[in-house]
């Protein structure tokens, strides 16, 4: 069991959405079902990996991908992503609101201009005990440490089995260098043509960063002899490409105090949940803690008027 479960909420939401989309195309029903399915996925993860610990829900700012990294990549970053309707993104908002009122075990964080993985290092600094990061995005593996594992929904990776599987040790710089070389289809980051997987692994295991690689090749340092002349030529020819990839992949600079001030501490609020469950057409009995399953709309608005709001 882990003492902290740190979830990429946008990543989880997207997976739940496309599961539910197979059942209905009608947007209101689809969003309501996706919220319910997302919650069930979170509860399952909580029960399996973090029964008595804290669950952190880290969310992208809805426009984060359109700001910093898009500018750094000449507009290419995530340009291949299919833009969903406004309802899709509002559904994430509703999910977070529901979870903020569900339990004091839940904490949510979302900050302007940052993506969820940018928040991870600061959140880890504020946690006590071991943590499990949950995301299919390899960017989250940059935070693997002796007390931090990464679950890509198929396998839990520690430092040792990540190294065994991927053939290099996971660090912020090594994963950034690897992805700078081979690219990332999901984020529309193109790899460097002429750099094979084998060559990329050779580079990652012998150079500490993109800057180290470029500096070694330019200055013809001794360790650059580990590369073929063809690879050296490819590296120099793609200097701008490598630096652009590095800047898109590397963590954004953050104000830790700003992140800490944006942490929303959840607490069980029966009145708020009654309103939300009714509004979002949750099935009766979804949450057995809610006593009045037959609550009417009149009761909802009466309760809402009496609900304390911070």
Short description:
This protein is an alpha/beta fold and 310 residues long. It has helices at residues 9-20, 27-49, 68-72, 86-100, 116-125, 159-166, 172-182, 197-204, 210-218, 229-237, 239-249, 256-261, 270-279, 297-306, and strands at residues 4-8, 54-59, 106-110, 131-134, 148-151, 156-157, 183-184, 189-190, 264-265.
What does this structure look like?
- The chain is built from 14 helices and nine strands.
- It has helices at 9-20, 27-49, 68-72, 86-100, 116-125, 159-166, 172-182, 197-204, 210-218, 229-237, 239-249, 256-261, 270-279, 297-306; strands at 4-8, 54-59, 106-110, 131-134, 148-151, 156-157, 183-184, 189-190, 264-265.
- The strands form two sheets. The protein has a seven-stranded mixed beta sheet with strand order 6-5-4-1-2-3-9, with helices on both faces. A two-stranded antiparallel ribbon has the order 7-8.
- The longest helix is centred in the first third of the chain and has 23 residues, at 27-49.
- The model is unreliable at 69-73 and 77-81 (pLDDT under 50).
């Amino acid at each position: 069991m882990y003492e902290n479960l740190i979830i990429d909420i946008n990543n989880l939401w997207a997976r739940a959405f496309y599961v539910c989309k197979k059942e209905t195309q009608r947007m209101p029903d689809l969003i309501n079902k996706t919220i319910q399915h997302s919650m069930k996925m979170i509860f399952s993860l909580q029960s399996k990996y973090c029964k008595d610990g804290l669950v952190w829900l880290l969310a992208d700012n809805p426009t984060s991908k359109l700001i910093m990294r898009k500018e750094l990549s000449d507009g290419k970053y995530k340009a291949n992503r299919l833009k969903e309707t406004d309802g899709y993104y509002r559904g994430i908002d509703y999910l977070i609101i529901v979870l903020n009122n569900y339990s004091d075990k839940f904490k949510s964080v979302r900050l302007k201009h940052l993506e969820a993985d940018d928040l991870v290092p600061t959140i880890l600094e504020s946690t006590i005990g071991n943590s499990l990061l949950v995301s299919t995005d390899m960017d989250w593996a940059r935070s693997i440490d002796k007390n931090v594992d990464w679950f890509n929904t198929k396998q839990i990776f520690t430092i040792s089995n990540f190294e065994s599987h991927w053939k290099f040790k996971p660090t912020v710089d090594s994963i950034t260098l690897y992805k700078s070389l081979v690219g990332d289809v999901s984020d529309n980051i193109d790899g460097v043509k002429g750099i094979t997987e084998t060559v990329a692994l050779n580079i990652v295991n012998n150079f500490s960063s993109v800057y180290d690689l470029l500096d070694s090749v330019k200055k013809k340092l001794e360790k650059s002899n580990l590369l073929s002349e063809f690879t050296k030529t490819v590296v120099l020819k793609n200097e701008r490409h490598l630096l652009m990839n590095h800047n898109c992949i590397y963590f954004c600079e953050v104000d830790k105090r700003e992140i800490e001030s944006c942490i929303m501490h959840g607490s069980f609020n029966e009145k708020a949940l009654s309103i939300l469950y009714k509004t979002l057409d949750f099935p009766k009995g979804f949450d057995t803690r809610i006593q009045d399953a037959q609550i009417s709309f009149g009761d909802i608005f009466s309760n809402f008027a009496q609900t304390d709001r911070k």
